[in-house]
C-alpha cells in the first residue's frame, strides 16, 4: 500500500514569523530521522527566505504570484513532483503572507485526486502587535485578510506576544476566539513552542520514523473541527446512492471533488460540487489514480461524513 503523505499549510501575514516556525518544524522532523519537504510561495520574483532552509531539505519555490491567484493550479503539480522525486515523510506549504488560506486549501486538495496525501491542517502565525493595531483601526484589506487567516486555522500561534502589554493579551484572546473558537491558541515569542504539543493540538496523526499511515488509519481518524476531509475508496459505489449523499451534504460543506468508480455503470467519473450543485464527467484517467473524494468546508463532522461514505462502500445495492 502506498504511503499517505501528510501535508501542513503554514499561513500568516507578512513578518508574522512563518519562516521561523518552518525552521523549527524542519528541525523537529529531522530529529526523528524523517525527511520533510517544503513548498515556498512568494509573490515577488525573489525569495530570500529560501536561504534559511537547510540544503538537505527537498524544496521547491513558487515565485511571481500568490498560490491562491495566479499559480494555484501549479501547486498540486509541485506536490506531485516532490513526492515522486524525493518521497518525503511530510510536506509543508509555506504560503505568501497575502494568500487567502481557503484558496490554498482548494489548491492542495487537487493533488489528492491522484496522490495519496492527507491534509493535516492549517497553522496560522499571528503578529500579536500587528493584529491589535489592525483591530483598533477596524478596516482595510490587510485586516480582512488576517481575519480570514485566523478563521481558517487549525491551530494559532499568537507570536511576538512579548511586544504587547499583559492586559492586551486578554484582548487578543477575545478577538481570536470571536473569529475562531475551535483552534487552540498558543502564545509565543520567536515561535518558540513545543512542536509535538502544537501538532498534537491539531489532533493530527504524526508520522513515525520507519512507518507510514495506513489507509484505514487515515479513514478512521476522528476530528470534527476540520476544513478538509479526504476519503479513499476501497470499493466502487452505487451512482444513485452517491448522488443522494452529495445532495444531502450539510451546508457547512461548500466544495467537493473527486474521482470515483460507480458499480452500476462500470465507469469512472470526475465529480465537482460547488454552491450546492454537483457535476459529473466521465473520464478515463491514465496511470494508477485512486478513487477518492475531497470535501472542503467549515466545522462539519468529519466522522459522520466518513461513516456515510463507508456505508456506501459496504452497501450491496
UniProtKB/TrEMBL annotation:
CDD domains: CobW-like. Residues 6-186 form the CobW/HypB/UreG nucleotide-binding domain. Residues 232-312 form the CobW C-terminal domain. It comes from Paenibacillus pini JCM 16418. SUPFAM superfamilies: Hypothetical protein YjiA, C-terminal domain, P-loop containing nucleoside triphosphate hydrolases. The keyword Transmembrane helix does not apply. The keyword Hydrolase applies. GO terms for molecular function: hydrolase activity; nucleotide binding. It catalyses: GTP + H2O = GDP + phosphate + H(+). Keywords: Chaperone, Hydrolase, Nucleotide-binding. One of its GO terms (cellular component) is cytoplasm. This is Metal chaperone. The lineage of its organism: Bacteria, Bacillati, Bacillota, Bacilli, Bacillales. Pfam families: cobW, CobW_C. PANTHER family: COBW DOMAIN-CONTAINING PROTEIN, COBW-RELATED. Belongs to the SIMIBI class G3E GTPase family. ZNG1 subfamily.
Amino acid at each position: 500500500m502506498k504511503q499517505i503523505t501528510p501535508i501542513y499549510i503554514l499561513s500568516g501575514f507578512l513578518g508574522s514569523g512563518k519562516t521561523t516556525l518552518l525552521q523549527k518544524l524542519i528541525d523537529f522532523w529531522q530529529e526523528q530521522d524523517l525527511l520533510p519537504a517544503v513548498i515556498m510561495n512568494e509573490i515577488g520574483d525573489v525569495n530570500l527566505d529560501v536561504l534559511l532552509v537547510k540544503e538537505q531539505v527537498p524544496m521547491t519555490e513558487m515565485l511571481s504570484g500568490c498560490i491562491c491567484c495566479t499559480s494555484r493550479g501549479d501547486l498540486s503539480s509541485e506536490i506531485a513532483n516532490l513526492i515522486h522525486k524525493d518521497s518525503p515523510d511530510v510536506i509543508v506549504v509555506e504560503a505568501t503572507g497575502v494568500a487567502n488560506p481557503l484558496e490554498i486549501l482548494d489548491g492542495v486538495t487537487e493533488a489528492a485526486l491522484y496522490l495519496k496525501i492527507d491534509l493535516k491542517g492549517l497553522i496560522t502565525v499571528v503578529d500579536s502587535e500587528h493584529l491589535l493595531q489592525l483591530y483598533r483601526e477596524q478596516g482595510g484589506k490587510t485586516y480582512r485578510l488576517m481575519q480570514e487567516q485566523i478563521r481558517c486555522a487549525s491551530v494559532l500561534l499568537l507570536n511576538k506576544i512579548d511586544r504587547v502589554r499583559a492586559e492586551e493579551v486578554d484582548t487578543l484572546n477575545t478577538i481570536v476566539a470571536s473569529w475562531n473558537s475551535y483552534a487552540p491558541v498558543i502564545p509565543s515569542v520567536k515561535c518558540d513552542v513545543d512542536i509535538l504539543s502544537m501538532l498534537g493540538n491539531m489532533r493530527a496523526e504524526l508520522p513515525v520514523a520507519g512507518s507510514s499511515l495506513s489507509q484505514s488509519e487515515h479513514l478512521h481518524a476522528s476530528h470534527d473541527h476540520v476544513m478538509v476531509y479526504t476519503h479513499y475508496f476501497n470499493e466502487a459505489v452505487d451512482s444513485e446512492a452517491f448522488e443522494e449523499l452529495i445532495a444531502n451534504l450539510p451546508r457547512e460543506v461548500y466544495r467537493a471533488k473527486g474521482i470515483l468508480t460507480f458499480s452500476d455503470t462500470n465507469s469512472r467519473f470526475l465529480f465537482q460540487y460547488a454552491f450546492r450543485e454537483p457535476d459529473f464527467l466521465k473520464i478515463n484517467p491514465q496511470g494508477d489514480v485512486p478513487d477518492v473524494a475531497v470535501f472542503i468546508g467549515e466545522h462539519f463532522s468529519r466522522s459522520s461524513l466518513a461513516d456515510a461514505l463507508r456505508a456506501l462502500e459496504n452497501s450491496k445495492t
